[in-house]
Design a protein that fits this description.
The chain is α/β, with parallel strands linked by helices. The protein is 36% helix and 19% strand. A five-stranded parallel beta sheet has the order 1-8-2-7-6, with helices on both faces. Strands 3-4-5 form a three-stranded antiparallel beta sheet, with no helix packed on it.
């Protein structure tokens, strides 16, 4: 009953759009609790900004500015995060916004955010990097309130799409395939064609979970990673 939206600790990608979509899917009163810090790799947040090894990143806007597309945003600073009433701060912020951004400089900060978030009566979309994920995993064994919002149930098969060509993403895709998911490899030349949606639809009609990736054994003809990923998303949306 936990929805965790994993994001990059430097906020690369379409973070606001993805968080907004996750909130809509999770429920009409869903609250996004955002803490992108990952202290173990030198990524922290202070004053609502991402820091790398203690230094702000030139050209990178405040986290709240990047998330305005997901709804009204409230930022909670380190003093409140480390105070005794963080849960109360979260309740107060939730009355005025759907997205709450929390500063964090240590793993203890992240665990405090996780503890306070688990007490929320609203359905929470957890948004963070590996740092918050680890903290939440440690705290999730805490008894949850009995009146907690019931999670939605998944109906039908799931489509997972890996558009990135990075080694890490490919390794994650291989792990998913090893779990028995139907794998649809798409040659770059077919990404814009109609064959892709039909192949995916056929698997879904068989009620199979599907993984879609770009076939790196085929020539890419100079197409960039970002453009191929965008084309792949457009082709799937058409189905």
């Amino acid at each position: 009953d936990i929805l965790y939206r994993k994001i990059d600790s430097l906020l690369r990608g379409h973070v606001a759009r993805e968080v907004h979509a996750a909130m809509l899917a999770w429920g009409p009163s869903a609250l996004a609790l955002v803490a992108p810090a990952f202290p173990a790799v030198g990524r922290t947040t202070s004053g609502g900004r991402v820091m790398v090894n203690g230094r702000a990143q030139p050209g990178l806007p405040a986290i709240a500015e990047l998330l305005t597309g997901a709804g009204a945003v409230v930022a909670i600073g380190l003093d409140a995060v480390r105070g005794a009433d963080l849960a109360a701060h979260l309740r107060s912020a939730a009355a005025n916004a759907g997205v709450i951004v929390c500063d964090a400089e240590t793993d203890a900060d992240l665990r405090g955010i996780a503890r306070a978030g688990l007490l929320a009566s609203q359905p929470i979309v957890w948004v963070g990097s590996g740092g918050l994920a680890r903290a939440l995993a440690r705290e999730v064994s805490v008894a949850l309130p009995a009146d907690r919002h019931p999670p939605p149930r998944v109906r039908g098969p799931i489509v997972a799409v890996v558009g990135s060509l990075t080694d890490i993403s490919r390794a994650q895709a291989r792990r998913l395939v090893s779990e028995g998911v139907t794998h649809v490899r798409v040659p770059p030349a077919e990404v814009r064609g109609m064959a892709l949606p039909r192949r995916v639809d056929a698997a879904l009609d068989r009620y199979e979970d599907v993984l879609v990736t770009i076939d790196t054994t085929s020539p890419i003809d100079g197409e960039g990673d970002a453009q191929l990923g965008a084309d792949l998303g457009a082709a799937l949306a058409a189905s």
